[in-house]
Design goal:
It contains 16 helices and 17 strands. It is of the alpha/beta class and 425 residues long. The strands form four sheets. It has a seven-stranded parallel sheet. It has a six-stranded mixed sheet with strand order 2-1-3-4-5-6, sandwiched between helices. The N and C termini lie far apart (46 Å).
């Protein structure tokens, strides 16, 4: 079948975001002998002509649209990015009568709400490689599509539970053309995924809604081979999108050593969970080309961290920060103020703690985005912050009752004024 895949995201936050998840789907369909065209809407001014041209060129049998970010997760002056996605879905509906299937991280968090709100016909919750391949097979055979795991059909309430891909080797890494799409420049950051799923169970996090809690690792040799393909395509800078690059430690250490042995000569950034990190691992990361990490400490109050279901504590963050500094790895810190258990004293302690560390940059966020199927959403309902029927598609934020938002913002701004490398939102 002829399949047009559209990455609807049009927003660049901090850097250009490449549609890696959709690229995996494109490769899976290509490997199953479908004719695939994939387009990325980032940086496109005349979006109607762009999409119309792709439809006219391919003449697709179906059109898949990937939804990435619902909003910018900022409580103050929130940008509701899904509105752009909805406009693209409506545009595609005007231009084509072919079935429209939604997917992507944003859709998977709100499958029923988005499908009901949009002009799409169906949506796939969770990973799309197997489910969309199965859907196309059903279309080709003229069979009913009901019963496909994770498939939502407009107007029908019965949904077969989604299934996560257990064997990561069953679907190949995508051809670099699907990931990059545009010419690679020295400033281009190319995404790499080595693991799916996260077992950390943080109280506010949406990862489980997207990837599940079971950690599924790619064979290290396949990761290194694919990075080599990206390098040959011109990539010189990578960012690992894994939620916790350093976990499991043994996997991270083996990956870094394999990258060093392969002589890839790339620099890269990643996300580090400040727990079970030690000097041997940090040294291996630096030797393999790591030059920057995102270090999400969120708070310096151990009780707040416990209520967030974090496995690390304040001292773990300090230790990780010292190690990263020792090996000249740039640190981008992250704080979230207003979580359950937060007090004025814990806010002050957290800001003082952050000031004591040698972060190269720090983002301080006031208020926490509430996502469905999280402990934070349950807490917010109990406290009356959100209603029992709120589907949370439109952004809602949590600040612990009794703690004044204005005071938090003024206090954070006062600290930021003394630290030019701090950003508050």
């Amino acid at each position: 079948m002829k399949v047009l895949l559209i990455s609807a995201n049009r927003t660049e936050i901090n850097m250009r975001t490449m549609p890696l998840g959709l690229a995996f789907v494109a490769q899976a369909l290509t490997d199953r002998h479908h004719s695939v065209k994939m387009i990325d809407c980032v940086g496109i001014d005349d979006i109607e002509s762009y999409i119309k041209g792709a439809i006219e060129e391919l003449g697709p049998d179906i059109i898949g649209i990937s939804i990435r970010n619902i909003d910018d997760q900022t409580m103050l002056n929130t940008r509701f990015l899904y509105e752009d996605d909805r406009e693209i879905i409506a545009l595609v509906r005007r231009l084509s009568d072919r079935p429209i299937i939604l997917g992507g991280a944003g859709y998977s968090m709100f499958p029923d709400a988005i499908l009901a709100d949009s002009d799409a016909d169906m949506g796939i919750e969770g990973e799309g490689e197997a489910a969309l391949s199965m859907l196309l097979e059903k279309f080709e055979r003229g069979e009913s599509v009901e019963g496909i795991p994770g498939l939502h059909i407009k107007g029908r309430t019965a949904v077969e539970p989604r299934q996560f891909i257990k064997d990561t080797r069953s679907f190949q890494y995508p051809d670099p053309q699907y990931v990059v799409g545009q010419p690679v420049t020295p400033d281009t950051w190319v995404p790499v995924q080595t693991r799916r799923g996260c077992a950390m169970n943080c109280s506010y996090c949406s990862t489980a809604s997207i990837e599940g809690r079971a950690l599924r690792k790619r064979p290290i040799e396949s990761v290194v081979e694919w990075i080599g393909q990206l390098v040959r395509a011109g990539a010189r800078q990578l960012y690992f999108v894994d939620n916790t690059f350093n976990l499991p430690r043994s996997y991270a250490l083996s990956l870094c050593r394999a990258m060093t042995d392969a002589g890839l000569n790339v620099k890269w950034r990643c996300i580090v969970y400040p727990w079970r990190i030690d000097e041997e691992l940090v040294a291996a990361m630096a030797a393999a080309g790591c030059f920057e990490v995102s270090l999400g400490s969120e708070s310096a109050d151990d009780e707040v961290l416990r209520l967030m279901h974090k496995r690390f504590r304040r001292d773990d963050v300090a230790y990780a920060s010292r190690l990263l500094k020792k090996y000249n790895i740039t640190q981008m810190g992250f704080l979230m103020l207003g979580a359950p258990g937060e007090t004025r004293q814990s806010v002050l302690d957290t800001l003082d703690f952050a000031a004591s560390l040698e972060f190269d940059a720090l983002k301080v966020t006031v208020g926490i985005r509430i996502y469905p199927n999280t402990t934070l959403a349950e807490e917010a309902r109990k406290q009356g912050i959100i209603g029992p029927d709120d589907n949370l598609l439109r952004p809602r934020f949590y600040i612990t009752p009794g703690l004044d938002e204005k005071w938090i913002r003024e206090t954070a701004a006062m600290y930021a004024a003394k630290h030019p490398n701090w950003i508050t939102s």
